[in-house]
Structure formats: structure tokens, C-alpha cells
Amino acid sequence: MRPSILYPLFAPVGTLKGLGPKLGRLAEKLAGPHVVDLLWHLPTGLIDRHFAPKVAEAPDGRICTLTVRIDQHLVPPSTRQPYRVLASDESGTIELAYFRGRADWLGKLLPIGAEMVVSGRVEWFNGRPQIVHPDHVSPAEAAGQVEMVEPVYPLTAGLTPKTLRKAVLSAVAAAPDLPEWLDPHWLQRRAWPSWRESVRLAHSPGDEAAVDAMAPARARLAFDELLANQLALALVREHQRRISGRAVAGHGELRAAVLASLPFAPTGAQLRAVAEIETDMASDRRMLRLLQGDVGSGKTLVALLAMLNAVEAGGQAALMAPTEILARQHHDTLAPLAAAAGVEVAVLTSRDKGKARAALLERLAEGRIGILVGTHALFQEDVAFRDLALAVIDEQHRFGVHQRLQLSAKGRAVDILVMTATPIPRTLTLTAYGDMDVSRLTEKPPGRQPVVTRTIALDRLGDVVSGVARKVAEGARAYWVCPLVEESEQVDIAAATDRYAHLREVFGARVGLVHGKMKAAEKDAVMAAFAEGALDVLVATTVIEVGVDVPAATVMVIEHAERFGLAQLHQLRGRVGRGTGASTCLLLFDQPLGETARSRLAIMRDTEDGFRIAEEDLKLRGAGEVLGTRQSGMPEFRLADLAHHSELLEVARDDARLVLERDPELKSPRGEALRTLLYLFERDQAVRYLRSG
Ligand code: ADP
Ligand code: MG
Prior knowledge:
Blueprint: H1 20-30, H2 35-39, E1 45-48, E2 63-74, E3 83-89, E4 92-98, H3 103-109, E5 115-125, E6 128-132, E7 136-139, E8 149-152, H4 161-174, H5 184-190, H6 195-203, H7 216-242, H8 253-261, H9 268-282, E9 288-293, H10 299-312, E10 316-320, H11 324-339, E11 345-348, H12 354-366, E12 371-374, E13 388-394, H13 401-408, E14 415-420, H14 426-433, E15 437-441, E16 451-457, H15 461-473, E17 477-481, H16 489-507, E18 511-514, H17 520-532, E19 537-540, E20 553-558, H18 566-573, E21 583-589, H19 595-606, H20 610-628, H21 642-662, H22 669-680, H23 684-688
Parallel strand pairs: 4-6, 9-14, 9-15, 10-12, 10-13, 11-12, 13-14, 16-21, 17-19, 17-20, 18-19, 20-21
Antiparallel strand pairs: 1-8, 2-3, 2-5, 3-4, 5-6, 5-7
Helix pairs in contact: 4-6, 6-7, 7-21, 8-10, 9-10, 19-20, 20-21
Bound molecules: adenosine-5'-diphosphate (ADP) and magnesium ion.
Magnesium ion binds near residues 300 and 547.
């Protein structure tokens, strides 16, 4: 149970001053659902309003805070022109311009004759200074209320800086004094403020230095987050050690039947991974293994053999995928293969409802379904296995430790296999997965033709379209990916929709469109049409990144490739080259290309080796970014940035281990405080792993 001292922090973000339900939804989109999420939404910079020149000396383009007298209001003849207010000091006159300014409101705000403090960006126009929409105006006697250093936050459309700032300050005010969870000596050595003070300082930086990642308040918050992360991982590990697993060793007949039915033989890498998994499953320790393998390296077969091992031993297996499309696709791949061994594979997503769902659950509870594939829907309370022995999680960067634990709670000593297509360097794996064992599929199935990758400037779009048309005429199928810039999904969808319209003029009705805002059923229908060959070209936002399998597709066009990270480009390119046909990947870039983007595209041209690409990515971006981004499969730290805080990560790891050695139940005063820390960072599940939760 979350301690009551944290309740104010877990109130809905919409309850904060100045938000309400509508703005609350925007704040939720921006930061997260709770008050605490807004605390974690740290400023990325600041506006310094200290510069207070005379009007005549206010430089063009700079934020200035001016003390002026209001002289005259100039009401515009038409609403297309701005409402102007003239103000002056002894050095000269400045114009304050308001588009669609209302006379009554401005009359009250800026009364003629009043001494006012006005702050905003000064621009010189026709030899006269002006400020368009000053950020702040207040009577000179109330000037103290203007925040002279104003933090700048990442925003979202519809939420103004002022509204957000007010909500953040009200969140800061709601932050309680929490018991200190940091080691007193360490705290002293670093001269870090308390948690509450750190939160306050982080949101009220006095100068540029205070926005730096290593500023005491920010470093402390980052360390708190890392400590929560490492402590949670350590608790999971302890838990794994403590509860004994079960020995699962099948007779091998089902696996033999499936292997005999395949038109190919497993690769050496697949056989090695399977052997490692079988050894883990056979031991009475719980398995917690990560299967890393590039897109197309054949992880599915490895997972299937592991799952059949569980079934042979009398248990059941679950495979969880991050999306509906992927779950169904896994099901469609696995079902016919497992059928060769007489094993029933079913699929369960949130779309399954009513009688069919009830019947499925019954067969599951009776143990007639050997393998259940699904999405998050597998966590629903009424989903009960007869005897779940193995959970496979197709991570594709979407799940956290938390969900892995939830799934394992569905059975007794469930072995866990996590699959990821991101070839993450070993050191980085540790921070995300703790001490997970790792199997790597380093070799691709034979017979694959390399994907020919070319980079082309976007202004040669016409050539690209006719090139694709030629390939299509020869029977090829093509993906056409438009980038997703996360800040504005709307704009991206518009770009994809435009491209779709454009390509329809060339390809007619044999072009389809999928994007993230479509309903799952619509998306599936378009994907299915593409898979069946009813469509030749599929225009998509990056929704197709996630594991979609159409072996017949041999052309991948990526528009604005310069906007994608290496890992993402690699994932996208992996969508082609899956069949036996020769494949092409065209990376369209917009000029001018920055140096990093140029290197990225060059690496893509050079190699298809995911592990090498991961290493290069690390070199180009540094660990911080590789770990920090959504695509990386790493936990998303809100406060820690490993480019700056990696030293803190190591301390946090050691500290977590030491704490648990000395106080495994977190019973000491510091231990109690650390429990609060875990709840603060929503590691509730980890707390439950304490023997006396
Ligand atoms: P991943 O999940 O790692 O991206 P998949 O498991 O989907 O890769 O495998 C990609 C394709 O390769 C599938 O069509 C699969 O049937 C095929 N495949 C898997 N293993 C082999 C193998 N040993 N030899 C030939 N083809 C294979
Ligand atoms: Mg797969």
C-alpha cells in the first residue's frame, strides 16, 4: 500500500490549480497522470528577465524588463491590425502590440498615465522598439511579483507556459516533507538538499548553472530515481533467488514433431539459445533470460521450442506482445506450427469479449490451450491458467520489469523469457534488466539476401516514386514510412496522409495508409490487405516499426531518414529482406544534413549487423541517449540522464546492494524511508517482494 504521506502526489494532475479536466488531460499527455509527474517535468532552460535597460537602449531580439509610463492607446481600424499601446521612459518610446487585443481589457491592464513594468522580447521595427504580446505587465509598485528568472518547460499544444507554470508551482507546494532515504554520509559529502528542497530548487532555478544536470538539486533527484530503479531490480533479483523455481524438462516429442514439420533446420545460434533456455528451465532456479536477436534472426522459433518444452512437462506457456497486431501475428505464425505437435494456440486481446472470450478462458483454465498469445489483456484478473510454467515476453521495447512480474504472478514459479530485437550492449543491458542471463542470436537464417541500402536527397522524390513504380510493376510490395515527430502526432499524420494522396495519383487504389490514430480493426484490415497483396504500397507512420511481418515486401522507403535514430532505422529496414527476394531500402533525406545524421546514414549504408549498429549508435550518441530514449528498450528515466549521471548509476547500484545486505526487509528507519522512495517512483510491485510487505 502506498504510504498516505504520498497521497497528495498521486492525486490526478487535473486537480492542480489552474488546470481542471480539460487542461488536466493536456498536462497528463505532457507529463503523466499524477501530480508527481508534473514534479518530474523539469525545466529545460530559463528566461532571465534581469536585464533592464532604458527603452532606447533595449537591443533587438533580447528579453528585457522595462519600466515605462503608458502614454497612449491606438485602437486599430480593423481587427487584422494589432492594438497598439505607446509607452515611454525618459530615453524614448516603445510600442506594445496585441493582436486581437480587446480595448476594454487592455484599457484596464495598461491604464494611461500608469507606471508599469513590462517584460518581453524587444524587436526593432522601422526604427522603433516594440514588444509583441509582452510576457508580463504589472504596475511598477507590484514589480516584485514578476519572476525575474523564469524556467522554461517543454510544452504541448493548448497549454501555455503560464498555465503550466502555475500548475507546477502548485504541485511543488503539494510536495510533502519526506523522510530522508539517502545515506547521511553520502548526502553530506555531496551537499545535496533534502528531497523536498530539491524539488523546489529544480523548479525555481536561479541561474543557468541550476539547470545543469549536475546542479545539486537535479543531481539528487536523478540519484533518487536511479536508486529506486536499482533497488527495485535488486529486490526482484533477491526474490528470484529466494523462491525456488521448478524443474521443467519435457520429453522432447512435441519439439521433435514441430522441427520435423519445418522446411528448414534451426541455425546454430538458435540451437545454442534453445539449449541455454532448456538448461535454465530444467534447473530448480527460476529462469530470467533475455533473448536478444536482430529482426529476422528467428526468435519466434526459439520461443516456440521453449514453450513446447513447458507444454511437454505438463504446463502451459504464455507469449505476450506489445500490440494487438503483433499478438495476432504471433498467433498466426505459431498456431500452424504448434498444430504439427497437436498443441492448441489461442490469442487473447482486449478486443475479445463475451461468449468467445468466456469459452477461451474455460479452455485455458482446463489446460486445453497449451499456448496463449496476447497483449496486456493477459493481465486481466479473470485470466487463469491451469498451470502457467513459462512466460515469454516479446519486449519490443514496450514493457517494463513491472509487467514481467505481473505476468509471472499468473502461475507458480513461472520461468521468464524476454525477447528483444534491440541489440543492446551488455553494460547497458544491466541497468535495464539487472542480472538477467542473456542469449544472443548472432547469426541470421541462411538464404537471406542482403538489403541494398541507398541514400537519396528528398528533392529527387520524383525519381524515387518512378523507381518504386518500376519495382511494383515487377511484382514488388513497398513500405513507405513517414517520420513520427513525437511532439505533434497530428502533423505527422497529416504528412503521411498527404504522401498517401500523392501516391494514390500514381498507384491508384493499390495504396494503403496506416497510422497510430486509426482504430485497431482498421489498421489490421489495411495491414492484412498489404500482406495478402491486395495493396502494393503501404504508407505508414512508424507504427509498422513493431515487428510486422510481410515477407513478400521487398522495398522500404523511409522519408526524412535523417530524423530517425539508428536503432529505429535498423528496425524499419528489418521489415524487408525477410523473404528470399532481393530487397531495397531507400533512405530519403532532407538537406542540409547535420554531421551526426550524415554518419548515421553512412552506417546504415555500410552494415546490416544489428550489434555493430548498436555499438556505433552508442558511439554517436553516448550511453545517455541510447538509454534515455523510448526506442531503446531501456527504462525511461524522467530525471536521470545517463550521459551525465552514469557515475551516479554505479553508486546507486552499489548502494542498493549494500542496503539489502544489511537490511533485507527494509525495516530500519532508512529502510522504511526507502520504501517510500520506491512508492514515489511507482515501484510498488518491488515493495511487494519484501517478505513482510
Ligand atoms: P524475429 O522474431 O527474430 O524477428 P522471426 O522469428 O520472425 O524473427 O523469423 C523470421 C523469419 O525467418 C520467419 O519467417 C521464420 O520462419 C524464418 N526462420 C526462422 N528460423 C529459420 C531458420 N533456421 N532457417 C530459415 N528460416 C528461418
Ligand atoms: Mg518476431
